[in-house]
Amino acid sequence: MSTATLTPSSSRVLRFDVIQRVTHWVNAALFTALIITAIPLFYGSLFGVVVPRHLDQEIHLWCGLALPLPLFISVLGPWGARMRRDLRRVSYWTRDELAWLRTLGRRPLDADKFNPGQKFNTLFVGASSLIMLGSGVILQWFHFFPVSWRGGATFVHDTLAYVVVAMIVGHLYMAMTHLDALVSIFNGRVERAWAKKNAPAWAREIDESSVDPSQR
Amino acid sequence: MAKENVSRDKPVAVGRRFFLGAGVLGALGVVFGGSVQNKVSSSLGGGLGGILPFGDRFRYYTVTGTYPKISKKKYRLEVSGLVDRPTTFTLADLQALPATEITKAFQCVTGWRVPDVQWRGVLLADVLRHVGVQSSAVALTFESYDGTDTESLTIDQANLPNVLVVYEMLGAPVTRAHGGPVRLFVAPMYGYKSLKWLSAIKVVDRVQPGYWEQNGYPVNGWIDGTTGPTNHNPQLA
């Protein structure tokens, strides 16, 4: 699998390994199920249109509880080296990257593997998943919380749901308009030329590296 | 960490700050969000507040997945059991009894709340007086036209001055989604006690836990922040 990227001269480089791709698609499936089952929960008149209410609630609950699992599993073992390294990339920003985001991309940037917009999206999805999970737990096991907290959890869960859907729509738009990047979440690879143009710092890193680039 | 960035400049731990900030925001939202929401929607007024995601708006619940459709003409409320005069009320019969109107929030046990809802109907106490409750009676069992939902109240709870058999809500006849033509409104308790599409009241000698109670909700659903399976009413339990 890594033979294509063994030599710097090869034209394609590995962007996402199979663990990352599977994690992405399991997450995508969970988000899809959560959003679809959320619609009748939010607009009660749609109950029973697709599935009975109780089944709808159960699916929403279990998908929500399962949401952190794919990422946890993907970083836990020796298979998670690449995911861990990419999460570190997403977590640590250079001053230049902060400035780039502050000017909404108008400032030139020697971009890393992920640009600040992509990093922001990743952090947003992660943090909002945790908030949705926490507020969802309050809504499900409301017995244990004062009624004002339940109201607040409803507020947080409903409002953030709208923002999350908006972010996902934006994510899909970016995917559809950047087909080279989109393909890499299916087959894992991008053209070296694409990397040099869109992620020059990362491309140099691969070139300069003496280790197998697929391990970067 | 982040060795690959060191050569360019000193990295900033944005991820950690982002997660901490989000956690704080989420916690603040849970603790204070309810009151913020109430203020926002009362300043926006009912119309807009009802549309926006963060407004106070009804979530229409039904335990069967559909809303029963009952015409006003065909509507009947059957009151039977331990009573002197078992009676079947038409909607007109109910409207002929003395009307009571209260304005009170609808509070769902799961947290959402709609403030200042107008409710108009007959005091349940007046209905009970009309049929004559026998001395052996302990509780009421309510049934719904949906064929599944049931509820219960003790006789003492049913005689409270803010427990209504409702035929008008929000200034208009109760809509189908809201449980029309006739529903209960038990003001001091969570919304699940306010059974929709009310079809029958049976006066019985013991409390029979209703649909939601069989699914884990407290039989006495007092709105006081201390729900739980063991929630009891200090005066009336």
Overview of this protein structure:
The complex is a heterodimer of chains A (216) and B (237). Chain A has 216 residues and is mainly alpha-helical. Chain A has a domain at 18-92. Chain A is 68% helix and 4% strand. Chain A contains 10 helices and 3 strands; from the N terminus they run βααααβααααβαα. A two-stranded antiparallel ribbon of chain A has the order 1-3. In chain A, helix 1 (18-42) packs antiparallel against helix 2 (53-66). Chain A starts with 11 loop residues before the first strand and ends in an 8-residue tail after the last helix. With 237 residues, chain B is α+β, with helices and mostly antiparallel strands. Chain B has 2 domains: 17-57, no CATH class; 76-214, Sulfite Oxidase, Chain A, domain 2, CATH 3.90.420.10. Helix content of chain B is 27%, strand content 26%. Chain B has 7 helices and 11 strands. In chain B, the strands form 2 sheets. Chain B has a 5-stranded mixed beta sheet with strand order 3-2-11-6-7. In chain B, strands 4, 5, 8, 9 and 10 form a 5-stranded antiparallel beta sheet that branches. In chain B, strand 4 and strand 5 (113-123) form a beta hairpin. The longest helix of chain B is centred in the first third of the chain and has 31 residues, at 14-44. Chain B is elongated and about 85 Å long. The relative contact order of chain B is 0.14. At the A-B interface, helix 4, strand 2, helix 5, helix 6 and helix 7 of A face strand 1 and helix 2 of B.
